[in-house]
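Can't paste images in this forum, so I'm doing it all in text. The chain is below; anyone willing to post the predicted structure tokens underneath?
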Amino acid sequence: MDIRITGARLSGSVPAPPSKSAGHRLLLGAALAEGTSVLHGMAPSQDILATIDAARALGAKIETEECPGGFTARVTGPLRASLGAECPCRESGSTERFFLPVAAALGGETTFTGTGRLPERPLGPLAGALQTHGARLSRCDGMPFTVEGPVTPGVYELPGDVSSQYITGLLFALPLLGEESEIALTTPLQSAGYVDLTVRTLARFGVRVSRTARGYTVPGGQTYRPLEADVEGDWSGGAFWLAAAFLGAHVRVAGLDRRSAQGDRAAADILRAFEGAGEARVDCADIPDLVPPLAIAAAGRKGVTRFVGAGRLRLKESDRISSVCACIEALGGRARAWEDGFAVSGNGSLRGGTADAQGDHRIAMAAAVAAVICEEPVVILGAQAVEKSYPDFFTRFRELGGKFDVL
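Text version of the structure:
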């Protein structure tokens, strides 16, 4: 779906979308619990639907019912070892990396499939840690692949600067083993907020983990307890509206908790720091999902903004360093990329033009927000990419006064 935005005088209040990060974790914890959990306010995004499919494939019973802003999920577990189960991850890295260690811990034989760039995204460090403890994987360099378990307790060594999703997957899986295990990080932890969110979620299900000097200690033989919970608002999705407000739209975002464990709550403080002209610097190591809206905000401020520590962005749904820069340049702005970062030279406005989302949900949303400061219409190629994380993004855009046509 290609769209043409012809007006972006946005005004009004918009609810933050349900947190995809929180939703994945609540669904997996509920699927591991013996009994029924009720989860309110799930977003029907492609990534969340992938996690539901994976949980069902491993034996969870999940019923859904529409509710304002999303749906309620009734999840009855626990997951069990299975022979011949297939987990269809779609393009969700969270689904793949959370369920792989769990499937290995449960035992049996499970096949993982995926689409888009997911088969290209790195899995080797997590696969290697699981193989060291007895898992057998048919391959570690693409999809589909099959994992056979179970794995044994022990010390699981992982780099902390490749993907926090590896650590989250192990934190969910290791409590299922019979004895205590340890996650030992061989490099400093990045995206720590996502791991903090995991630890808080586990505690809600009655599962204990302890932070140590080099990682985490996880007692074995723990039981997940069912719960009833609401999905909190998503800072990474809400950040697009916060960026629109920074660019001059009269938009307020409801439902974002400043006390959240989400590292992306940093969006508010970074945008506040953008208010002055001149040079600015953003360290992307802990907030990779904030980069697209922050880059568009940088195009709307006067001065050079440098985004550093962004190497992992090359492994997202698109090469997000390249696609962010291409989006800004296509709309008349100036951006310069290097291996692990880029710089945006902003002058307060953009011309407009045609931007290719490159199959990336966050690039599609960034291009739409950029229309706030564009002098001419904005055409977004592949705008349907927003369905991956924020399926009603353009509905909200129109409710705020945005005008667009489907081409």
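The longest strand covers residues 35-42. The two ends are 7 Å apart (CA to CA).
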